[in-house]
Write a structure and sequence with these properties.
Elements (H helix, E strand, L loop, with lengths): L1 E5 L3 H12 L3 E5 L3 H8 L10 H10 L3 E4 L11 E4 L14 H11 L6 E5 L7 H15 L6 E5 L9 H6 L4 E4 L3 H15 L5 E4 L1 H32 L3 H9 L20 H14 L5 H13 L2 H10 L7 E5 L14 H11 L3 E5 L4 H7 L2 H5 L3 E3 L12 E4 L4 H4 L3 H7 L4 E4 L6 H6 L3 E3 L19
Parallel strand pairs: 1-2, 1-4, 2-3, 4-5, 5-6, 7-8, 9-10, 9-12, 10-11, 12-13, 13-14
Helix pairs in contact: 1-3, 4-5, 8-10, 8-11, 10-11
The protein binds nicotinamide-adenine-dinucleotide (NAD).
C-alpha cells in the first residue's frame, strides 16, 4: 500500500517505520524542516529503542522516505495518517489546530479516493471537522473526490513503541464505510494476524475510547499515589499492598505503582482535555479533577521529603538526581516529575547534580539555561558523577542502571547516605542494611529530622 503519515514525532515516525517494515511504501511528512533534513540523513529526532535500525533499513530498501510538504509526495496515497500533536491549549482543552491544518493540506493534495486515518488523540467529533476541512479544500479545487475519515487512536507506549505497534493487544478503528473497513483490515491484518483483535466501532466511540483509556490508567496511578500517602502515615508499605491487590484477577497488576507522579505527553494533557469535554457538555467530572489534583500534589512529594530532611532553605545542600525523562526508555521530558523537583530545589537554593541515560540533550534544550550557566544545575556525564559530594540522592526515573547500583561506589562518593526513592525501586531493608537512610513513596517512614549541612559560600 502507499501510505502517507503526517507528523514525524513519536507516533508518526513509529507508525511510518513499522508500516514500511511490513512492506508498504511510506512517506512521512513533517513541517519541522530540521527534523526532516535530519531524518533524510539518518539522524533520529527522538530516542526510541529499535527505531533507528528500522528507519535506516527501510530507507535503504526504498520503502520509507521523508519530506517537508505533502505537495512533494509523488505517489497517490491510499491511506493518509494524521499523527500531529494535540497539546493542551491555554484552557486545558486539546489544541486541534495542527490536525485541522493537516486536514486542509490533505484536501489540497489528494486526487483519488483515500482513507484519512486520525491517529492523533482528538476530542470527540473531530473526524467530522476533518471531513469538513477536506471537503472545503476539494470544493475550492472543483473536485468531488470520495474519501473516508477513520479514527484509529494509538496506544503505544514511549520506550516500547515498536513492540507495542507491532504486537498490540488490540487495534481500535472507528468508521462508517465498508471501503474503509476493507482497507483498514488489509493494513492491520499482518500485525494482528487475526481479525478478532481489530475492534470496529463508530467514529465517536473510537475517539472517546482513547481518552477513557488514558484517564483510566492515570486514575489507577493517582489512586495508588493517594493510598501511598495514607500508608506512609500508618506505617504500611504500599509495595506489599500493591502486590496484594495486583494479584487479584479482578484488579490486575498493571499501573498500580505508587511514585512521584505521572508525566509525559499523554496522560496529563488527555485528562485535562477530557475534563474540558465534560465541561463543554455541562458535566462536572469529579473523579478526573481528583486524578489531576493528586498528580499535581504527588509531584511535590520528593521536594517535600527533601525539605523535611534539610529545612526550607536548601542553600548548601547538594542533591543528586537520577533520571530526568518522564519514564524510562524515552528522552521525553514533557511534564516530567523531574521538572517540578528541579525547579523546587533550585528555587530553595540547593545545588542539583543530575544524570539521565538518554534525556540529557532534551534537558539542555528545555531547562532554563541560567540554571546551567550559574552552576545551580550540573548535568553530569556519568551516573556516579552526580553523586559526588551529594547530601542526598533522589531517584526520579527508574532506568535499569539506577535500579541495580554499585553501593560501594555510591558510598565512596556521597557526603551523606540518604536515598529518596521516587519510584520505589530499592528494597528499604537492603538499603538500610547498607548504611543508607532510605525513604520511598508510601513505605511506612516519613523523613522528620532537619539535617545540618555545611554552608559553603562562594
Ligand atoms: N507520544 C505518545 O506516546 C503517544 C501515544 C499515543 C497517542 N499519542 C498522540 O499522538 C499524537 C502525536 O503525538 P506525538 O507524541 O507523536 O507528538 P510529537 O510532538 O512528537 O510529534 C508531532 C509532529 O507533528 C508535526 N506537525 C505538526 N503540524 C504538522 C503539519 N501540519 N504537517 C506536518 N507535520 C506537522 C510536528 O512538527 C511534530 O514533529 C498526539 O495527539 C498524541 O496525543 C501520543
Amino acid at each position: 500500500m502507499n501510505i502517507t503519515v503526517i507528523g514525524a514525532g513519536y507516533v508518526g515516525l513509529v507508525t511510518g517505520a513499522c508500516f514500511a517494515e511490513l512492506g508498504n511504501h511510506v512517506t512521512c511528512v513533517d513541517i519541522n524542516e530540521q527534523k526532516i533534513a535530519n531524518l533524510q540523513n539518518g539522524i533520529m529526532p527522538i530516542y526510541e529503542p529499535g527505531l533507528e535500525p528500522m528507519v535506516m533499513a527501510n530507507m535503504a530498501a526504498g520503502r520509507l522516505n521523508f519530506t517537508k510538504s505533502l505537495a512533494e509526495v509523488s505517489a497517490e496515497p491510499q491511506v493518509v495518517f494524521i499523527a500531529v500533536g494535540t497539546p493542551s491549549d491555554k484552557d486545558g482543552a486539546a489544541d486541534v489546530k495542527y490536525v485541522l491544518e493537516a486536514a486542509r493540506n490533505i484536501g489540497a493534495r489528494i486526487n483519488d479516493y483515500c482513507v484519512i486515518v486520525d491517529k492523533s488523540t482528538v476530542p470527540v467529533g473531530m473526524a467530522d471537522q476533518v471531513q469538513q476541512q477536506i471537503r472545503s479544500e476539494l470544493s475550492k479545487r472543483n473536485l468531488a473526490i470520495q474519501f473516508d475519515v477513520v479514527s484509529n487512536p494509538e496506544f503505544l507506549r514511549e520506550g516500547a513503541a515498536i513492540e507495542d505497534f507491532m504486537r498490540p493487544d488490540r487495534v481500535i478503528v472507528g468508521l462508517s464505510s465498508n471501503n474503509a473497513k476493507k482497507i483498514m483490515l488489509d493494513l492491520y491484518l499482518p500485525i494482528l494476524r487475526s481479525p478478532e483483535r481489530l475492534y470496529f466501532m463508530n467514529v465517536k466511540d473510537a475517539e472517546m475510547t482513547k481518552y477513557v483509556a488514558n484517564a483510566m490508567l492515570a486514575t489507577r496511578i493517582s489512586f495508588m499515589n493517594e493510598m501511598s500517602v495514607l500508608c506512609e502515615r500508618m506505617g504500611v508499605d504500599i509495595e506489599q499492598v500493591r502486590i496484594g491487590i495486583g494479584s487479584d484477577a479482578r484488579i490486575g497488576a498493571a499501573f498500580l505503582n505508587a511514585g512521584c507522579g505521572y508525566g509525559g505527553s499523554c496522560f496529563p494533557k488527555d485528562v485535562r482535555a477530557l475534563i474540558k469535554m465534560a465541561e463543554k457538555n455541562d458535566f462536572a467530572p469529579l473523579i478526573l479533577h481528583a486524578v489531576e489534583d493528586r498528580n499535581a500534589q504527588q509531584k511535590n512529594v520528593l521536594p517535600q521529603k527533601i525539605v523535611a530532611l534539610f529545612g526550607e532553605d536548601l542553600t548548601g545542600v547538594t542533591v543528586a538526581v537520577w533520571g530526568l525523562a518522564f519514564k524510562p526508555g524515552t528522552d521525553d521530558m514533557r511534564e516530567a516529575s523531574s521538572l517540578v523537583l528541579l525547579d523546587n530545589l533550585i528555587k530553595r537554593g540547593a545545588k542539583v547534580q543530575a544524570y539521565d541515560p538518554v534525556a540529557m540533550p532534551a534537558a539542555r534544550n528545555i531547562l532554563p539555561s541560567e540554571w546551567l550557566t550559574s552552576g545551580k544545575l550540573v548535568l553530569t556525564e556519568h551516573q556516579y558523577d552526580a553523586l559526588k559530594g551529594a547530601d542526598a540522592l533522589a531517584l526520579v526515573t527508574e532506568w535499569k542502571p539506577f535500579c541495580y547500583p554499585d553501593i560501594s561506589a555510591m558510598k565512596s562518593l556521597m557526603k551523606q547516605y540518604i536515598i529518596i526513592d521516587g519510584r520505589n525501586q530499592y528494597d528499604p531493608r537492603q538499603m538500610r542494611d547498607a548504611g543508607f537512610e532510605y525513604y520511598g513513596i508510601g513505605r511506612g517512614s516519613i523523613p522528620a529530622r532537619s539535617r545540618q549541612v555545611e554552608v559553603v559560600t562562594a
